[in-house]
């Protein structure tokens, strides 16, 4: 019996470890199954210890599985690294602000709005990227562009997804202490999601910042507030999870093509609505570095609801950028997401690697 269970565990583990390279467009439910990867690693570890103490050669199978899935350990958890609390470099913040009015305890949304604006005004990041950004130029306390941008001497780009510029609207924004010399929209869904970019002149260099908010699960907040709500809506939830996986895969194709044609070194931030054990994450990881993996600590969970164990907000970046510090700001409890930030440095003028190689040839 133990041989059968070990063999099944081994085959299932390998299948799921390598399924992150399969697009959900071809295998829609693959993204749901990969959520079990951390559990599989733990089970393989227990089987390995059990079989070693039993002096069974069969222990080689869970050992191979653990080696095959080793990358997922670093993606899941990072041991604290010795870094200075104050580092100098280009600082970038990403935050899904949930329209500035989310209140987990159903408190006063106006007070919550006031607190989040104050925290963001005091945050020293050079570049600030927002998803679900709310703007109301007719109401001083909700004129977010003025409060966070012009009054704080930040250049900005704001792309509206729904609403009108002269009245209430929401969309995505990038604010920068440095001049924005070019900006644009990669795509949007005309509902809530999209990707925008800004080319930012930093001294003698130019960096392209992508701010992404990929397809949401479209699951009502009420169904995630407690376990009973999740159980009651599990069929509907599975359908939405499946749809979200497929849509994000198609959005990722558009984004990757746009980044490929970028003339500058890229930093990609945002709310990806996908966990690290996903096609989205591993596709980006093939060509970019992840700031949490290089400079994070702990589990880095970024979701601020009952499913607290999710890390769906990320900062990716190109070489030759180096990340000096990465933070998940869990003390900032104003939204259904926690903000994430990173500090970057580079030694030589930033150039696309392929352009540099062409000049050498």
UniProtKB/TrEMBL annotation:
The source organism is Shivajiella indica
Q: Which PANTHER family match?
A: TRAF AND TNF RECEPTOR-ASSOCIATED PROTEIN, TYROSYL-DNA PHOSPHODIESTERASE 2
Identify this protein by name. Endonuclease/exonuclease/phosphatase family protein
Lineage runs: Bacteria, Pseudomonadati, Bacteroidota, Cytophagia, Cytophagales
Give the signal sequence positions.
none
Give the record's keywords alphabetically: DNA damage, DNA repair, Endonuclease, Hydrolase, Magnesium, Membrane, Metal-binding, Nuclease, Transmembrane, Transmembrane helix
Q: Which residues form the Endonuclease/exonuclease/phosphatase domain?
A: 93-337
* TM annotation in the entry: 29-53, 60-79
Q: What cofactors does the UniProt entry give for this protein?
A: Mn(2+); Mg(2+)
Gene Ontology MF terms in the entry: endonuclease activity
């Amino acid at each position: 019996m133990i041989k059968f269970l070990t063999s099944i565990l081994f085959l299932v583990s390998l299948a799921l470890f390598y399924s992150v390279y399969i697009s959900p467009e071809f295998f829609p439910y693959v993204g749901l199954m990969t959520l079990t990867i951390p559990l599989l690693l733990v089970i393989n570890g227990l089987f390995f210890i059990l079989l070693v103490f039993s002096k069974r050669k069969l222990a080689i199978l869970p050992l191979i599985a653990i080696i095959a899935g080793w990358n997922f350990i670093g993606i899941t958890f990072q041991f604290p690294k010795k870094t200075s609390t104050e580092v100098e470099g280009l600082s970038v913040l990403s935050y899904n602000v949930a329209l500035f009015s989310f209140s987990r305890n159903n408190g006063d949304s106006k007070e919550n709005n006031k607190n989040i604006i104050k925290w963001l005004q005091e945050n020293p990041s050079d570049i600030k990227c927002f998803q679900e950004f709310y703007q109301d130029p007719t109401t001083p306390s909700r004129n977010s562009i003025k409060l966070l941008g012009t009054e704080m001497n930040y250049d900005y780009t704001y792309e509206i997804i729904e609403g009108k510029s002269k009245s209430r609207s929401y969309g995505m924004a990038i604010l920068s202490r440095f001049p924005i010399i070019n900006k644009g929209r990669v795509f949007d869904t005309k509902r809530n999601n999209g990707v925008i970019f800004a080319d930012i002149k930093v001294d003698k260099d130019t960096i392209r910042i992508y701010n992404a908010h990929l397809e949401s699960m479209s699951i009502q907040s009420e169904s995630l507030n407690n376990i009973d709500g999740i159980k009651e809506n599990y069929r509907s939830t599975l359908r939405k999870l499946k749809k979200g996986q497929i849509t994000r895969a198609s959005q990722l194709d558009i984004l990757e093509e746009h980044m490929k044609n970028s003339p500058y070194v890229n930093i990609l931030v945002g709310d990806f609505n996908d966990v690290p054990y996903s096609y989205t994450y591993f596709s980006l990881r093939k060509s970019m570095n992840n700031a949490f993996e290089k400079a994070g600590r702990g589990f880095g969970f970024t979701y601020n609801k009952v499913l607290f164990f999710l890390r769906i907000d990320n900062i990716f970046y190109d070489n030759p950028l180096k990340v000096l510090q990465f933070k998940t700001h869990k003390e900032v409890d104003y939204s259904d997401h926690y903000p994430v930030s990173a500090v970057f440095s580079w030694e030589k003028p930033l150039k696309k690697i392929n352009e540099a190689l062409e000049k050498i040839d």
